[in-house]
Amino acid sequence: MSVELIFQFLGEQWILAAALATTLGMLILHETRKAGPSLSINEAVQLVNNDEGVFLDIRDAGDYARGHITDALHIPAATLAKRVGELEKFREKPVVVVCKMGQSAGPATKTLRAQGFSRAQKLSGGMMEWDAQKLPVVTQ
Description:
The chain is an alpha/beta fold. 49% of the residues lie in helices and 11% in strands.
C-alpha cells in the first residue's frame, strides 16, 4: 500500500480518522488514570527503605505463600476495601502495592489513594518482574 493511498483515504474519510484518533486518545487516558503511579523495583525498594514504607501484596493466599517480598503485608485485593484500616500506621508513608504482573495493583492503588493514602503507588511489573530480576523472596 503506498503512502499516497493512505493520505487519499485520510482525506476522503477524515471523520473516521478523527473518530479513531479521539477513541485511541481516550483509551490511553483512561488506562493511564486507572493504572495510577508506578515505581520501578529499584525506586520502590529505596522508597520503602528510606521512608519506612511497606510493600502491600494483594495477591491471593496461594501466590503469597509461594513467595513474597520480605516484610510485605498481605491483604488480598478482594478484601482490601474492608481491611484498609490495617494500614493506618502507613497512611503518611509509602505504600507500594504488589500484584502478580503489575495490572491488578493499579485499581488497588487508586482505592488506597481515595482512602487518603496519598503516597500509595504500584510496583511496575509486579512479582513477575521481581522474580525475573532474581530478587529474594520469602516462602511459607
